[in-house]
Amino acid sequence: MNLDGETNLKDRELITNNVKDNLLIKFEGTIEADKPNPNLDVWEGLLKSRDLGKPKPCSPKNLLLRGTTLKNTPYCFGVCIYVGNQTKIMMN
């Protein structure tokens, strides 16, 4: 499935490099995110954690939409924010 009609790969970015893979099991924090909306190009959030110090802003570069296929990376860690009818693809 191609959400935006383009076939080129989209770069995604880490919110922070402060948390190492082996420490993720102990990571605690919260994510404040926009209310669900159908716009594929707009999303803002804020990652808050004592481990990070100040809150880290999130953008569409940090978001993997439902149906995304990962390429050129062996794995990723993530948090599910919207589910069911709240996903952007279901709202479109």
- Report on the biggest sheet: 3 strands, antiparallel
* Model regions low in confidence, pLDDT < 50 over at least 5 residues: none
SSE order, one letter for each helix or strand = EEEH
Which whole number gives the mean pLDDT? 84
Strand content: 5-15%
Strand order of the largest sheet: 1-2-3
Shape: globular
Q: Work out the number of β strands.
A: 3
What count of structural domains? 1
Helix content: under 10%
Number of helices: 1
Structural class: little secondary structure
N-end to C-end Cα span: 13 Å
Rg is: 14 Å
Task: Itemize the secondary structure elements and their pairings.
Blueprint: E1 30-33, E2 45-48, E3 56-58, H1 88-91
Antiparallel strand pairs: 1-2, 2-3
